Amino acid sequence: MRTIKDYESVDSTWCPGCGDFGVLSALKKAAVDLEIDPKDLVVITGIGCSSKINEYIKCYGYHGVHGRALPVGTIVKVANPALTVVVAGGDGDGYAIGMGHFVHTVRRNPDITYIVMNNQVYGLTKGQFSPTSRPGMITGTSPEGTYDPPVDGVALALTAGATFAARGFSGNPKHLTELFKAGIQHPGFALIDVLSPCVTYNDVNTYDWFRENIEYVDQPYDYDPTDRAAAIGRIMRAVKVPVGLVYRNPDRPSLHQEALADPARPPIAADLTIDGRYEELQELFV
Length: 286
Ligand code: SF4
Ligand code: MG
Prior knowledge:
The chain is an alpha/beta fold. Helices cover 32% and strands 17% of the residues. The protein contains ten helices and ten strands. Strand 5 and strand 6 form a beta hairpin. Helix 1 (20-33) packs across helix 6 (173-185) and helix 3 crosses helix 4 (99-108). The structure holds iron/sulfur cluster and magnesium ion. Residues 90-92, 119, 121-123, 130 line the site of magnesium ion.
């Protein structure tokens, strides 16, 4: 039986109290509960504070270019469907520079779990407003307050055809763990937007602010979460920030199931052996 210790890695450099700690613990707990061998777990990230998460959990990992982690995660899963592929990053990474990749990855439905640690600010670059900042937020780059309405990743995913869309809160790691487990087990693309406070650069959207300003849509449901229109209607009706497993449809085949429809066809990775090709590879890296 696995324990959290099996996934321990190096100590983090996150600020004490950062919401990303709750995400890290929930991800490790989900891996324990689902008995995922660390060698079968791949966490692909972008650039930003939250994207350092794959250094802090024992797994295979890779940093994509800013906003470009999703296509990397997609091809890793198609190349070797036996792996559990998690892609993670922040709101700036996923909903600004990565927006195009986000929408098109939703459409393709690869069997990967996408965790967006949403702190409504750019943390790593010292607190500029981000695509999810609330209107009026005063930052170094918006001294008079922001003017734009925030991007809602869950609503966007639902309208782009997502087969799984959820929102969690890092201040409720038990609920978040269940969302991660459901997302990993979902046979397609699973978005989990996580409200994850930046305690250093966002003094508005704090843990207390979220506790007062979120509502759970899944405890209990008052609509059918397998009905896309009903799910969109529920989050549009929400008075506070909607949190929970908003929608899921496990019936649509994932990208690799469609791409590798012939069960006799081996995963692409089976062809990618480096046995006997070291000299060729060395030439490539000179
Ligand atoms: Fe977390 Fe913000 Fe510190 Fe980055 S700057 S580690 S997001 S608290
Ligand atoms: Mg951010």
